[in-house]
Amino acid sequence: MQQLLESRETAADVDLSRDADNFDSRLFCGKCGERFQASEATDDGWYYRCPSADCDAEGIHEELYPVKDVLPSST
What SS3 string covers 36-62? Predict the structure, then answer.
């Protein structure tokens, strides 16, 4: 299985703890590494596609993953 934790986001103020933001509504693109709100990736709530202009990844648990599922456990 590919490592899914790499990301293009490198800002020093990015908080990766599970309590930061609402990770239940954030997605991670396994193809380009971007993180974004789920609402940015869908128009109808059924089909999801990476909102990055240069990426064609699509599908929850195919190429897009809930951030809470790819963050390491804090326990």
Answer: EEHHHHCCCCCCCECCCCCCCCECECC
Give first-to-last CA distance, the chain, whole Å.
Answer: 22
52 vs 71: CA distance, rounded Å: 21
The label of the residue with tokens 């239940």 reads: 24
Answer whether 0.70 is exceeded by the pTM.
Answer: no
Task: Write b or e for each residue in 34-68: b if 16 or more Cβ atoms lie within 10 A of its Cβ, otherwise e.
Answer: bbbebeebbeeeeebbbebeeeebbeeeebbbbbe
Q: Which helix (H) or strand (E) holds 29?
A: strand 26-29
Per-residue pLDDT of the chain (75 residues; tens, 9 = 90+): 455 555 555 544 555 544 445 556 899 999 999 999 999 999 998 999 999 999 999 999 999 999 887 767 655
